[in-house]
Amino acid sequence: MTPSPTRQELTLRGLVLGALITIVFTASNVYLGLRIGLTFASSIPAAVISMAVLRMLGGGSILENNMVQSQASAAGTLSCVFATFPGLVMAGYWQNFPFWQTAGLSLAGGILGVLFTIPLRRALVTESSLPYPEGVAAAEILRAGAEKGHSHGLRALIGGGVIATLFSFASAGLRLLADTLTLTATAGAAVFQFSGGLSLALVGAGYLVGIAGGLAMLLGCILAWGMGVPWLTAHLPNPEHLAPAAFAHDVWLHKVRFIGAGAIAVASLWTLVELMPPVLRGLRAMFTGRGQTLVPDTERDMSGRSMGLLLLLSAAMLAGLFAYFLAPVAVGFWPVVAAAVLFCIVFGFIMAAACGYMAGIVGSSSSPISGIIIIGAVLSALMILALEALGLTPTSMMAEGQKLATAFTILVLSAITATVAISNDNLQDLKTGQLVGASPWKQEVALIVGCVVGAAVIPPVLNLLYQAYGFAGTMPRPGMDPTHALSAPQPALIAMIANGIFTHSLDWSMLSIGMALGAVLVGGDQLLRRRQMALPPLGVAGGLYLPASVSITLAVGAILGWGLKHHIKTRRAQNHQTEPAANAAIGTMLASGFIVGESLTGVALAVLSGALGQDDALSIAHYVPANLPPVLGAAAFVAVCWWFARKTLQAETQGR
């Protein structure tokens, strides 16, 4: 990519604008995560807002806009710590969220995430062919905003965005269109269930992901819902007499999903082994300084000395905060603190590589960070048990029902969550930067600034939400309405896993099966590569772990994209065309528009939900027959997919 002639990148006004966007997106993501367990990727909405504001201020460049979206997306992603910190309140260890501990751990983990993306950038971005759907979409948005004379791509981007906005508002806002179609069937005691999400953003992401990643996700979904769930529902008791659909979902959530987590663990380790050569080359180049003065600005990372200082700073912050947490209730805790810091660095880097790879395949929004957190919870608790066996833990660690051990596991996991979440999102941003000709080291600085701002925002937002709504099963004051409490599904699950390990009540069978399956997937991928094919093990593991509504719709987008590209290629061959059509990228712009429109609508609805205290304030579902939204949703979804295919083929025809 040829860099922009205007090298105005890291500016004061850009940093201020990024900080303001950060505050809004972090608050929205924390609320949304605690309410339904999901967040939205903030890089694309941040890019759109940045372009609009800087254009009004005058003089904004594509590189300056890229820095703003990098900073804002880092902070918006840091909000993933909503999945762990509330567990300390739900476990009865904290009564609120202390600012310095919460912000400090978020910041230290976030900085580690930025540092880990630097060598991973070379392995996963520069020397990789991963599609990075959201990173490519953000780059297309920035280009469309900068290239004023190139109207076809901009019109396609806006058109796709408007269609997705209207669809998402009718679905998530008005609830007039269903957002998921579910089919449940039984064969004896076995329950079969498949769900398709009616999400245009997932279709767009699948189109950008490509056929290999889409089919890998689909295979994982088939293994989960076509084999795992039916077999387990046929052999497990149903003591609560749940309906077939509810029983199938319960089995997937508490059994099959752990198989996916085990497969993710093995596939992650293998991914790191495969990435090790380019990662080591990147580290060697940075810390020896070789070629740093000779490489162009678009390939220069933060210096090895700066990285070393930031690594020491992060490690010191983690050690100090872990010690501060343990000091009031334990003595002789330094071995535990040292082991925890080392664990955060080593495990954090391994999982950063895994999450970054998955983000490269399916995008940041669909990357299975929750599965990584489950693995982290298991390994962190096992580390503490190993230290106890060696006589290196304080006696109070395992007293009172292992309360302190459970709390410390959640604390360590919070820092790791920040690390892997930042790495997961930042590689998308660095891909965007590569495509628009940005300076990596300046982006890395912007990412760290985003972590600082996001870390400062998270504690007051968590306290505000807890005091206003409470968490399911844990209320700050007597007399509060439990029906309005935030469900906080991930923190409750993490606390249950940690406590289950310490009390020896955790079911290891599913994790073990998943690890064995992960080894089989790795072997199968190696055999396929000998025949010039591939089946990404992490993609299959992600399909096992993620909801079917995500995996199936991503696969639909990937298959649709493959069919359209194959048709265009065949038509060109018949017409003896050797050069691609001028407007062949219209499909990419439409797919990017789908992601933009749904992301912006998600932001707006999240802000509205936070302001009104309910997520169905605009719903008109109770005014229409119950069976109408699924029919309307399916019809609208098919119609938009047909429109997408037609516009893409028309553009190819006109471009000849």
Description of the structure:
The protein is mainly alpha-helical and about 650 residues long. Helix content is about 70%, strand content about 0%. It contains 21 helices and 2 strands. The chain has helices at about 10-35, 45-55, 60-80, 85-90, 100-125, 135-145, 150-175, 200-210, 210-235, 245-290, 305-325, 335-360, 370-390, 400-435, 440-470, 490-500, 510-530, 535-545, 550-575, 585-610, 630-655, and strands at about 180-185, 190-195. A two-stranded antiparallel sheet has the order 1-2. Strand 1 and strand 2 form a beta hairpin. Helix 9 crosses helix 18 (about 535-545). The protein is globular and about 75 Å long. Residues about 1-5 and about 580-585 have low confidence and may be disordered.
Topology record:
Blueprint: H1 12-36, H2 43-57, H3 62-78, H4 86-90, H5 99-126, H6 133-146, H7 151-173, E1 180-187, E2 190-197, H8 200-209, H9 211-235, H10 244-288, H11 304-326, H12 334-362, H13 369-389, H14 399-436, H15 440-469, H16 489-502, H17 509-529, H18 537-545, H19 548-574, H20 586-612, H21 628-655
Antiparallel strand pairs: 1-2
Helix content: over 70%
In what range is the share of β-strand residues?
A: under 5%
- H/E element string? HHHHHHHEEHHHHHHHHHHHHHH
Q: Could you give the distance between the termini?
A: 25 Å
Instruction: Kindly provide the radius of gyration, computed on alpha-carbon positions and rounded to a whole number of angstroms.
Output: 24 Å
Low-pLDDT parts are: 1-6, 579-584
Largest sheet: 2 strands, antiparallel
Number of distinct helices? 21
**Extended strand count:** 2
Mean pLDDT: 79
SSE-based structural type: mainly alpha
Strand order of the largest sheet: 1-2
